[in-house]
Amino acid sequence: MSQTAHIPSHRKPRRSASKLAFRAGVAGGVLSTIAVAGAAAPANAEPVTEKTLEMPTLGSLDADLASAVSASAEASQQEALDQSLAAQENAALQKAAKDARKAKAEADRKAEAEKARAEARERASRTAERTSLAGTSSYSASDSDDSGSSQVATGSAAAIVAFAKAQVGDAYVSGGTGPNSWDCSGLVQAAYRQAGIDLPRISYDQSSMGTSVSLSDLQPGDILYWGSRSGSYHVAIYVGGGKYVGAQNPSTGVVERDLDWDPPSGAVRIL
Question: For the chain, how big is the Rg over CA atoms in Å?
Answer without folding.
Answer: 62
